[in-house]
Amino acid sequence: MAVTRTFSIIKPDATRRNLTGAVTKMLEEAGLRVVASKRIQMTREQAEGFYGVHRERPFFNDLVEFMISGPVVVQVLEGEDAVTRNRDVMGATNPANAEPGTIRKELAESIEANTVHGSDSEENAKIEIDFFFKPEEIVG
């Protein structure tokens, strides 16, 4: 397996509950290394742009409102098969369906407030990383 990168967001429900460290610990224990991280207050424009692929979906406006409701932590993660590894440790989108020991099973409040976002492919990871980070900010 090759070392690759993926993108992660620790969402407002987690930052509000001071779980940034707990989430990062679970990511690191899963073999991922944080090579870039910053806490930001996402603007409406950023949230609408980032989640633009969902613009026509009925949940789009609620998702944007949620993502701008508080600070988030955007991260670049590195490790062997990083996208898959991150998705495995995150768990199913709906915490009720997530495996024990995953971030969403252990820390999420609901399917909407599910603590983390992670890229679903290497191609999307590159797009998502480039959306929030300049190359010189990634110092792995």
UniProtKB/TrEMBL annotation:
Compartment(s): Cytoplasm
GO MF term (any one): ATP binding
Catalytic activity: a ribonucleoside 5'-diphosphate + ATP = a ribonucleoside 5'-triphosphate + ADP; a 2'-deoxyribonucleoside 5'-diphosphate + ATP = a 2'-deoxyribonucleoside 5'-triphosphate + ADP
Enzyme type, top EC level: transferase
Keywords assigned: ATP-binding, Cytoplasm, Kinase, Magnesium, Metal-binding, Nucleotide metabolism, Nucleotide-binding, Phosphoprotein, Transferase
Binding sites annotated in the UniProt record for ATP: 11, 59, 87, 93, 104, 114
EC number: 2.7.4.6
GO CC field: cytoplasm
Xref: CDD domains: NDPk_I (cd04413)
Active-site residues, as the UniProt record annotates them: 117 (pros-phosphohistidine intermediate)
Domain Nucleoside diphosphate kinase-like: 3-140
Cross-referenced InterPro entries: NDK-like_dom, NDK-like_dom_sf, Nucleoside_diP_kinase, Nucleoside_diP_kinase_AS
GO aspect biological process, one term: UTP biosynthetic process
Names of required cofactors: Mg(2+)
Pfam families: NDK
Summary of subunit composition and partner proteins: Homotetramer.
Family annotation (HAMAP family): NDP_kinase
Similarity comment: Belongs to the NDK family.
Its job: Major role in the synthesis of nucleoside triphosphates other than ATP. The ATP gamma phosphate is transferred to the NDP beta phosphate via a ping-pong mechanism, using a phosphorylated active-site intermediate.
Protein name: Nucleoside diphosphate kinase
Organism: Sphingomonas spermidinifaciens
Chain's gene name: ndk
